[in-house]
Design brief:
This is Flagellar protein FliT. With 118 residues, this protein is mainly α. It has 4 helices and no strands.
Length: 118
């Protein structure tokens, strides 16, 4: 009985991780959909935590899925930051002198990205 329950939890966990990966892959590169995906995935992570999911206890399949999820999250965040920086650059181009714009962009580039290494 205990083995059946353990296998059922493993299947559920893999289904949740695959669902998260599928949502991330379906992103249409808009900020509003990214926010929705992040909220849905946050709920799924809470569900995984209720099931006893721990990054320290990953199996091979889980590890592969989590690495894919992290890679896509990083791509999304990079794209969002790039779009945000491009929008700021366009606004600055319209409102500030070239020197002021360059100084502002240099300050923004020095900020670090979120690190998902674990």
């Amino acid at each position: 009985m205990n083995n059946y329950y353990h296998e059922k939890l493993n299947k559920q966990r893999i289904q949740i991780l695959e669902g998260m990966l599928q949502r991330l892959n379906s992103w249409d590169e808009t900020l509003s959909q990214a926010e929705l995906i992040f909220k849905e995935n946050k709920l799924q992570i809470a569900e995984l935590e209720k099931m006893g999911f721990s990054v320290n206890k990953l199996g091979q399949t889980d590890r592969k899925l989590v690495k894919q999820i992290i890679a896509i999250y990083q791509q999304m965040l990079t794209k969002i930051q790039h779009d945000k920086a491009e929008t700021k650059r366009q606004v600055l181009e319209l409102t500030y002198s070239r020197g002021a714009m360059k100084a502002y962009l240099d300050r923004e580039r020095r900020r670090s990205l979120i690190d998902f290494d674990f």
